[in-house]
Design brief:
Pfam families: HTH_21. The protein is mainly alpha-helical. It is built from six helices and no strands. The radius of gyration is 27 Å and the shape is flat.
């Protein structure tokens, strides 16, 4: 949203654009001031910027395979694990997941759908008049037992 305002402010002005978009002009001007002068950022934002470099360093040093838990342990200083998770998500970093994903159902598009025995009439005149359940199991799925 801020990039859009930056791109079109010369042609239309900030206030008219902000009137159309759901943002106050003061919010835009505050964002611009913080972008120009990083000392105006909040304490959390300042710490996040410093931590992003460390998280990136640890992630890259470990062949870009470590997830949140391992990056958090490798940092070597006191930081919350949820903070590392939030920063990794914001930076688009994701660890590698081992093994194959478990597929419990393999749907067959050619198989006919079961008949609708209740004619999609889910409005009943009294309680306990119509009970509906759906326990669909593919014949190709594995037996859990």
């Amino acid at each position: 949203m801020f990039a859009f305002i930056d791109d079109h402010r010369e042609a239309h002005g900030v206030e008219p654009i902000c009137k159309v978009l759901p943002i106050a002009p003061s919010t835009y001007y505050d964002h611009v001031a913080k972008r120009i002068d990083p000392s105006r950022l909040s304490a959390r934002a300042k710490r996040d910027e410093a931590l992003k470099d460390e998280v990136r360093r640890v992630f890259d040093a470990n062949f870009r395979v470590y997830g949140v838990r391992k990056v958090w342990r490798q940092l070597g200083f006191d930081v919350a694990r949820c903070t590392v998770a939030r920063l990794m998500k914001a930076m688009g970093l994701e660890g590698i997941i081992r093994g194959k994903p478990i597929r419990t159902t393999v749907s067959d598009k050619a198989a006919p759908c079961p008949l609708d025995h209740v004619n999609r009439q889910f409005h009943v005149s009294a309680p306990n008049m119509l009970w509906v359940a759906d326990f669909t199991r593919s014949p190709h799925s594995r037996d859990p037992g």
